[in-house]
Amino acid sequence: MLVARRLVSTFIQRGNNSGPSGLFSRPHGAFPELEPRYLQCTCCWRSRVPVAGFETLNANLIPTAPCTDDLSLDTCFTADQREVILRTLNNATELELAGVKLLRGRKSVNIVDYRTKNGPFRSLESVVNVPLLKHKSALVVFNSILNPLKKEKKVKVQLMKFIKPEVDRAWLEEATSIVSIICGTNKVAWAHVDRGMMVLDWQQLDCPNFLKGTYIASSYLNDISNVVSQLPPADFYLVEKPSISLQNTTLFPIMAHMRSVEAMLFALLEPKIYQADSNTPPRVLNMMRLAVGRHFGLMVGESRTSGAQAVRQMMTESVTQKLPRLNFPQDLLLKYRNAFQMGRGRGGEELCDALLQAVAFYELLSESSR
Questions:
Q1: What pairs with residue 163 in β-bridges?
Q2: DSSP states of 305-328 as a string?
Q3: Alpha carbons 127 and 133: distance in angstroms, whole number
Q4: How is residue 236 annotated by DSSP?
Q5: Beta strand extents in 198-351 (DSSP E only)
Q6: CA gap 48, 42 in Å, rounded
Q7: How far is CA 366 from CA 156, 157, 175, in A?
Q8: 3-state DSSP call for residue 288?
Q9: How far is CA 27 from each of CA 20, 32, 42, 44, rounded to the nearest angstrom?
Q10: d(CA 39, CA 54)
Q11: C-alpha to C-alpha distances, 90 to 82, 134, 221, 243, 305, nearest whole angstrom
Q12: pLDDT truncated to tens, each residue of the chain (370 aa)?
């Protein structure tokens, strides 16, 4: 056990004052003289570890006195702490300030604007002159600067958890091309992408019998058969698995429609019933819609937003960058260059989603194999 000299000396002095039989009485020569600012082992009194002065240790306590509204902010912190806080507030960029608790959004912008107009902060109390920052919120900000929270490592989406049925990874890695299929309420879109991230085919087909009447099976079959006849050959066909809650009864007709289309695609594209212990991989797989949304940062809560901007970005990079994320042939760029512009409605959502699902498949497969 390690003890500080001052504490031991106090105990010894009290023991000596209580007489020879005191608990902390020290016979002559029982303890060696201890040097200040060291921790020493009470078992052998030889091992010695230098420590910082008690003044330094006390200076690191935050704060040393309770801070109330009637106290100046500068009196709540030590000189060293004030220096750290002011250095951060005066030198951090807007993005860096946004990482401090309570400074995300307008407050970080206000701090940068204030120091640009008025010069650097010279005291902690002057920070309350920044719009939206008052005494209590400033205290939280200062303590957050002194004790930054450790950022949690972002959890990567693992592809194998979002592909059904479960298949051997080696089969997926050996695939030379895939067809990503998205089913809408009145159309089906697909994107044929090879392992070199080249878009080989990208289109959609209207299905006039979808959601008409009482879901007549023969009508659905005609539309799905027409789609399947135009799909290019590939190693795997990825059919999107939508994330519609069973508790939302208002969407039950849409869910029934999606399940019907999904079942027909599996039946028409899979030449035989897949067996889990088979040496032949399945041709048709489900990929979860939520996994693709998380991969591209399209999730807002449990809802997924439009991927049109991500697709426009990839189309632009295909022309402007030497190593783009995705390569488009010239004819497809010309065909869809104006299809996903702002203000043109949401007519191309199925096309966007088909492409994003294919890209997510290859990228997640690559990340999970590292």
A1: 287
A2: ---HHHHHHHHHHHHH-SS-SSB-
A3: 7
A4: E
A5: 199-206, 236-241, 284-288, 299-300, 303-304
A6: 10
A7: 12, 12, 13
A8: strand
A9: 8, 11, 16, 17
A10: 12
A11: 12, 18, 67, 46, 37
A12: 444 444 444 444 444 444 444 444 444 444 444 444 444 444 444 444 444 444 433 444 444 445 666 678 888 889 889 999 999 999 988 888 888 887 877 888 889 999 999 999 999 999 989 998 888 888 888 888 988 866 544 444 566 678 988 888 888 988 999 999 999 999 999 999 999 999 999 999 999 999 887 767 888 999 999 999 999 999 999 999 987 766 777 888 888 899 999 999 999 998 766 665 567 888 999 999 999 999 999 988 878 889 999 999 999 999 998 889 999 999 999 999 888 765 455 568 999 999 999 999 999 988 766 5
175's tokens: 């695939």
Is residue 104 within 8 A of residue 141, CB to CB? The reply is no
